[in-house]
Write a structure and sequence with these properties.
This protein has 178 residues and is mostly helical. The protein contains five helices and no strands. Helices cover 83% and strands 0% of the residues. Helix 3 packs antiparallel against helix 4.
């Protein structure tokens, strides 16, 4: 697992930083009517990055969890449900990040915006933790508690790397864009 995680350290932040930079581009989370072609290109690029990340995650899960044929039939449908829900949380988070960055760029980050962003951040963190707990329970019932623990560990560590990559690209709260 350490070898896999070292590989992850080298690969994941590069992809995630690219996604964070992409999400900070003007119009990345714009209404559909505005800059539709640019948004389609951004959407396609984000989907390509997600596909690459999901392929990596599947390989990581397979290498760590050593699922039997029977366990595979039980685990992967649950995992696909998890990924679907996680995807929605990720899009909400990306919108929040884009709004945060844009408010720093245009100078509109004030006390009201700070309160709103903080509430959304707490809500986002709770939702992600609740999602992990929900699917840990489903996996624990479907296969074994140990494998559910492996799933939890993998997802937690990936989440930490993603959080670190995103945090390293964020402006300091209350700073002004230069």
């Amino acid at each position: 697992m350490r070898k896999t995680m070292k590989r992850l350290i080298c690969i994941l932040p590069i992809q995630r930083v690219a996604l964070v930079i992409l999400m900070m581009l003007p119009g990345a989370v714009a209404p559909a009517a505005r800059a539709a072609e640019v948004n389609d290109n951004i959407y396609n690029y984000v989907q390509l990055l997600r596909s690459d990340m999901n392929t990596f995650k599947v390989g990581l899960i397979n290498s760590i969890m050593n699922l039997s044929a029977d366990d595979t039939k039980k685990f992967w449908p649950i995992y696909r449900e998890y990924e679907s829900e996680l995807s929605q949380l990720a899009m909400n988070r990306a919108e929040m990040i884009a709004e945060f960055v844009q408010s720093h760029r245009d100078g509109s980050f004030d006390e009201a915006k700070a309160k709103t962003i903080a509430k959304r951040w707490f809500s986002s963190q709770r939702a992600r933790l609740d999602l992990l707990e929900k699917y840990h329970g489903k996996i624990e019932k479907a296969i074994t508690p140990v494998q559910a623990g492996q799933f939890l560990q993998i997802e937690n560590q990936l989440g930490l790397f993603i959080d670190l990559a995103i945090a390293s690209e964020m402006p300091i709260v209350g700073s002004t864009a230069k």
